C-alpha cells in the first residue's frame, strides 16, 4: 500500500449528500477481475450524459479542478454497496483524500485499505470548506496525517470560525497509512494466536 | 451488567485485542461470489500466501449471471471470464462452489440459509453489503470489501473495532397486507439512511418474534440501508425449526447440543444499548419509496412531502415526481420480484396469492426471479409456477438480476420499476431507471393492475 503522510493540493467540491457507491462506480463496470482502470469510470453517470458526452457542469469535468487530489463531498459519503471498486475508482482517478461530514462504514474501511484517506469534519467546517473551494477553486488544502489536521487557505470563513480542523483516525490505521502497511501482513503474523483460538472455539 | 446478543457472539470470537487498536475477530463462515473475490485471490497469489481455511468458505455465482438460458455459455465475454475465474480459483484452492446450474446455486444470501450453512452464534462475512441478512438467525453477519476478503482468505480473521449497539423494537399488531418489507421500509423512513452507521442493530419486539425466518431475513437484509453493518434477531424456536434437518445443519445429538447453546444467546434483560428506537406496529402500512435512497419512503396512500432540502429536490427531479403528490395510479411498466431481500418461497407465495385467477396487465413487463434453485424446486412442488404462468408471467432462473442490473436484466431509462429489491439509487436497475421499492404483495398487485393501487383497499374488500 502507498504511504500517506502530508499533502497540499486543491480540491473538487461535490456538495451532494448520500453519495452511494453505485454513483461512484456503477455495477456495469464491476466485471473486471483486477483493480486497474476503474478510475476512468468514476462517477460515470454524472460525468457523462446519456449520449456519452462529458457533462461540463459536473465538478470533476471542470478545468479549474483538474489538478485537485482531494474530493470534498456532502454528508454520508459512500453509502450502499460494499464494492471496494468505489475506493479503487476514486484512487484510480488520482484522488488521495475524501473529506465529508460523515462516511458509511464499509466505504471508510475500504478507502483506508487502499491508502485513500477519508477525513470526517464537522458539518460547519464542511460547509465553509465547500464554499471556499467553490468560490475559489485555487484554494489550497493541507492534510497532515501525523498531526491529524486539515487546513485550508480560505477566502471564506464564517465569523469566529477556523480554517483548520483536527480529525480522528484509528491509531492503528494511522500507523498503517504512514508506513504503507496493510492488515494482511499483520494478520498473517498472528497465525499462531489464531490457530490457538481455533482449537478452543465451539463447533457443532 | 448483562450482555446483548451481539456482545455474546462477538466476545466468543475475539482472538486478540491490540492495545489502542482494533480486535482480531475470528470468522466462522466466509461466503464468496464472482464479483468481489477475484482481486482478493490475486492479492494472495501475488504475495504467495495460501488460503487459510478453504473448508470454511462457500462460493456461489449470482451477481453477474444471466437469468435465462443458464445452460448455454454466458454471452458477455467479461462476465464469462469473471465466472471462469471463480471456478478456477475455487478448483485450485479446494473451495466448494455452487456454480450456475448446480442444484444449490442461488443468491448467496438465499442459498446459505436454506442449506443450513447459516446458524445462530456464528460470525459470517461476504463481499456484499447485504450479508446482514444472515443476522436473522442470531449470527453476526456483515458485508466486507475485497481487501477484507483477502484478509479472511489469509487468516480466517478480520481486524475490527467493536461497533456500538442499537436496538429497534416494534410491538403491536400489523395490519393485513403489511409485510416484513413494509416494516423495514417504515423503520428506515423514520430514522434515515445513516442512523445505524457505526452500529450493529438488534430487532426486538413481538412483531419480529412472530415473523417467519424468511420475513426476518428481509428485515435484517436491509439493515445496511439505514447504515448499520448488520442486524440481528434473537434465535428462538422458529429459528431452530427452520434449521433442523437442513443439509449443513448439525445433526442428531450435535443439533440438540447446538440448540442448548443457541438458547443462551438472546440479550440479557438487564443489558443496555447505546441507542434505542421504539415503533408501534399499528402505525405501519404498505410502503413505497418515492426518491433515490431507501429512507425516502411513504405509506402507500400517503403524499410525498411538499418540499425538502437539495437532496430531496434532486431525487424528485430524477424520479419525475412532484412534491405533495401521491404515487397511487402511477402507470408502471416494469415489476421486479426478486433479490436477496424478497426472492424466497414465502415471497412468491404471497405474490401468487394475489395473482391467482387474475391476468397480468398488458403494459407490464414482470420479471420474477427466484433466489435459488431450491426456491425454483419448491415453487414447482407447490404448483406456484403454474399460477404465475396462468396469470401471464414467466419465471426466470435464479440470480441477483435487476436488483443491481450487472447482467442484461436492466430497466430502461426513464421507466419506473416497482421492485422488491433493496436500493432505489439513481441508475441502480439500469442507467436512467427509476426504482420504487415495495413488498412482493404491492409488486404483484402493480403487475396485475399496470399501475400502483392501494392494496389496503383491494385486499380488504
UniProtKB/TrEMBL annotation, chain A:
The EC number(s) this enzyme carries: 4.2.1.33
Catalytic activity: (2R,3S)-3-isopropylmalate = (2S)-2-isopropylmalate
Domain of life of the source: Bacteria
One Pfam family hit: Aconitase_C
Family annotation (InterPro entries): 3-IsopropMal_deHydase_ssu, Aconitase/3IPM_dehydase_swvl, AconitaseA/IPMdHydase_ssu_swvl, IPMI_Swivel, LeuD
Record carries keyword Repressor: no
Any one GO molecular function term: 3-isopropylmalate dehydratase activity
Gene Ontology biological process: L-leucine biosynthetic process
Keyword S-adenosyl-L-methionine found: no
Record keywords: Amino-acid biosynthesis, Branched-chain amino acid biosynthesis, Leucine biosynthesis, Lyase
Pathway(s) this gene product operates in, as recorded in its UniProt entry: Amino-acid biosynthesis; L-leucine biosynthesis; L-leucine from 3-methyl-2-oxobutanoate: step 2/4
GO cellular component terms given for this protein: 3-isopropylmalate dehydratase complex
Every Aconitase A/isopropylmalate dehydratase small subunit swivel domain range: 1-122
Family the entry assigns: Belongs to the LeuD family. LeuD type 1 subfamily.
Assembly mode: Heterodimer of LeuC and LeuD.
Entry function: Catalyzes the isomerization between 2-isopropylmalate and 3-isopropylmalate, via the formation of 2-isopropylmaleate.
Full protein name: 3-isopropylmalate dehydratase small subunit
Organism, as annotated: Dokdonia pacifica
Organism lineage string: Bacteria, Pseudomonadati, Bacteroidota, Flavobacteriia, Flavobacteriales
Gene field: leuD
TrEMBL record, chain B:
Entry GO MF terms: 3-isopropylmalate dehydratase activity; 4 iron, 4 sulfur cluster binding; metal ion binding
Swiss-Prot/TrEMBL catalytic activity: (2R,3S)-3-isopropylmalate = (2S)-2-isopropylmalate
Class of enzymatic activity (EC top level): lyase
Cofactor note: Binds 1 [4Fe-4S] cluster per subunit.
Positions that bind [4Fe-4S] cluster: 340, 400, 403
Presence of the UniProt keyword Transport in the record: no
Named cofactor requirement(s): [4Fe-4S] cluster
Annotated EC: 4.2.1.33
Membrane-crossing segments per the record: none
Gene Ontology biological process terms, A to Z: L-leucine biosynthetic process
Keywords (A to Z) from UniProt: 4Fe-4S, Amino-acid biosynthesis, Branched-chain amino acid biosynthesis, Iron, Iron-sulfur, Leucine biosynthesis, Lyase, Metal-binding
Alphabetical list of InterPro entries matching this protein: 3-IsopropMal_deHydase_lsu, Acnase/IPM_dHydase_lsu_aba_1/3, Acoase/IPM_deHydtase_lsu_aba, Aconitase_4Fe-4S_BS, Aconitase_4Fe-4S_dom, IPM_dehydratase_rel_enz, IPMI_cat
Biological pathway: Amino-acid biosynthesis; L-leucine biosynthesis; L-leucine from 3-methyl-2-oxobutanoate: step 2/4
Coiled-coil zones: none
Self-association state and partner proteins as the record states: Heterodimer of LeuC and LeuD.
Family: Belongs to the aconitase/IPM isomerase family. LeuC type 1 subfamily.
Function: Catalyzes the isomerization between 2-isopropylmalate and 3-isopropylmalate, via the formation of 2-isopropylmaleate.
Protein name, entry field: 3-isopropylmalate dehydratase large subunit
Lineage of producing organism: Bacteria, Pseudomonadati, Bacteroidota, Flavobacteriia, Flavobacteriales
Encoding gene (name): leuC
Amino acid at each position: 500500500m502507498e504511504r500517506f503522510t502530508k499533502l497540499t493540493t486543491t480540491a473538487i467540491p461535490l456538495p451532494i449528500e448520500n453519495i452511494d457507491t453505485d454513483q461512484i462506480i456503477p455495477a456495469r463496470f464491476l466485471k473486471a477481475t483486477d483493480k486497474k482502470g476503474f478510475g476512468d469510470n468514476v462517477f460515470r453517470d454524472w460525468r457523462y450524459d446519456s449520449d456519452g458526452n462529458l457533462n461540463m457542469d459536473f465538478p470533476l469535468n471542470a478545468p479549474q479542478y483538474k489538478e485537485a487530489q482531494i474530493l470534498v463531498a456532502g454528508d454520508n459519503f459512500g453509502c450502499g454497496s460494499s464494492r471496494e471498486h468505489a475506493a479503487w475508482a476514486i484512487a484510480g482517478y488520482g484522488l488521495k483524500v475524501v473529506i465529508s461530514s460523515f462516511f458509511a462504514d464499509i466505504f471508510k474501511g475500504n478507502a483506508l485499505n487502499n491508502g485513500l484517506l477519508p477525513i470526517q469534519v464537522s458539518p460547519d467546517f464542511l460547509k465553509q470548506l465547500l464554499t471556499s473551494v467553490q468560490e475559489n477553486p485555487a484554494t489550497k488544502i493541507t492534510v497532515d496525517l501525523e498531526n491529524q489536521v486539515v487546513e485550508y487557505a480560505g477566502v471564506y470563513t464564517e465569523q469566529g470560525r477556523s480554517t483548520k480542523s483536527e480529525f480522528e483516525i484509528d491509531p492503528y490505521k494511522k500507523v498503517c497509512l504512514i508506513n504503507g502497511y496493510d492488515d494482511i501482513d499483520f494478520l498473517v503474523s498472528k497465525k499462531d494466536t489464531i490457530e490457538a483460538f481455533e482449537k478452543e472455539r465451539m463447533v457443532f | 451488567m448483562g450482555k446483548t446478543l451481539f456482545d455474546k457472539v462477538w466476545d466468543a470470537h475475539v482472538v486478540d485485542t491490540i492495545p489502542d487498536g482494533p480486535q482480531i475477530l475470528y470468522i466462522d463462515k466466509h461466503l464468496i461470489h464472482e464479483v468481489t473475490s477475484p482481486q482478493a485471490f490475486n492479492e494472495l497469489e501475488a504475495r504467495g500466501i495460501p488460503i487459510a481455511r478453504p473448508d470454511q468458505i462457500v462460493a456461489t455465482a449470482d451477481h453477474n449471471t444471466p437469468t435465462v438460458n443458464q445452460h448455454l455459455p454466458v454471452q458477455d465475454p467479461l462476465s464469462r471470464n469473471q465466472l471462469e475465474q471463480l471456478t478456477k480459483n475455487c478448483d485450485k484452492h479446494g473451495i466448494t462452489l455452487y456454480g450456475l446450474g448446480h442444484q444449490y446455486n442461488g443468491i448467496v444470501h438465499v442459498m446459505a440459509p436454506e442449506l443450513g450453512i447459516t446458524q445462530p452464534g456464528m460470525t459470517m462475512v461476504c463481499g456484499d453489503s447485504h450479508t446482514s441478512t444472515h443476522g436473522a438467525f442470531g449470527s453476526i453477519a456483515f458485508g466486507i470489501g475485497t481487501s477484507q476478503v483477502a484478509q479472511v482468505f489469509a487468516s480466517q480473521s478480520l481486524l475490527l473495532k467493536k461497533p456500538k449497539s442499537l436496538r429497534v423494537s416494534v410491538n403491536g399488531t400489523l395490519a393485513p397486507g403489511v409485510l416484513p418489507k413494509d416494516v423495514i421500509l417504515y423503520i428506515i423512513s423514520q430514522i434515515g439512511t445513516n442512523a445505524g452507521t457505526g452500529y450493529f442493530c438488534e430487532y426486538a419486539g413481538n412483531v419480529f418474534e412472530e415473523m417467519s425466518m424468511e420475513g426476518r431475513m428481509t428485515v435484517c437484509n436491509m439493515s445496511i440501508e439505514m447504515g448499520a453493518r448488520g442486524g440481528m434477531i434473537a434465535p428462538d424456536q422458529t429459528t431452530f425449526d427452520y434449521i433442523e434437518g437442513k443439509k449443513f445443519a448439525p445433526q442428531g445429538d450435535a443439533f440438540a447440543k447446538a440448540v442448548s447453546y443457541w438458547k443462551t444467546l438472546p440479550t440479557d434483560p438487564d443489558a443496555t444499548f447505546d441507542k434505542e428506537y421504539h415503533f408501534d406496529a399499528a402505525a405501519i402500512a404498505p410502503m413505497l419509496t418515492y426518491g433515490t435512497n431507501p429512507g425516502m419512503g411513504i405509506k402507500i396512500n400517503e403524499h410525498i412531502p411538499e418540499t425538502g432540502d437539495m437532496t430531496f429536490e434532486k431525487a424528485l427531479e430524477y424520479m419525475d415526481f412532484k412534491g405533495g403528490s401521491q404515487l397511487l395510479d402511477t402507470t408502471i411498466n416494469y415489476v421486479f420480484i426478486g433479490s436477496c431481500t424478497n426472492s424466497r418461497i414465502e415471497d412468491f407465495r404471497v405474490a401468487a396469492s394475489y395473482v391467482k385467477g387474475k391476468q397480468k396487465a398488458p403494459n407490464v413487463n414482470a420479471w420474477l426471479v427466484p433466489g435459488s434453485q431450491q426456491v425454483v424446486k419448491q415453487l414447482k412442488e407447490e404448483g406456484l409456477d403454474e399460477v404465475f404462468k396462468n396469470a401471464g408471467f414467466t419465471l426466470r432462473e435464479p440470480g441477483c438480476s435487476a436488483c443491481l442490473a450487472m447482467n442484461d436484466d436492466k430497466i430502461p431509462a426513464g421507466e419506473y420499476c416497482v421492485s422488491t429489491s433493496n436500493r432505489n439509487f439513481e441508475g441502480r436497475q439500469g442507467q436512467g431507471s427509476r426504482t420504487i421499492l415495495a413488498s412482493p404483495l404491492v409488486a404483484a398487485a402493480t403487475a396485475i393492475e399496470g399501475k400502483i393501487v392501494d392494496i389496503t383497499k383491494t385486499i380488504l374488500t
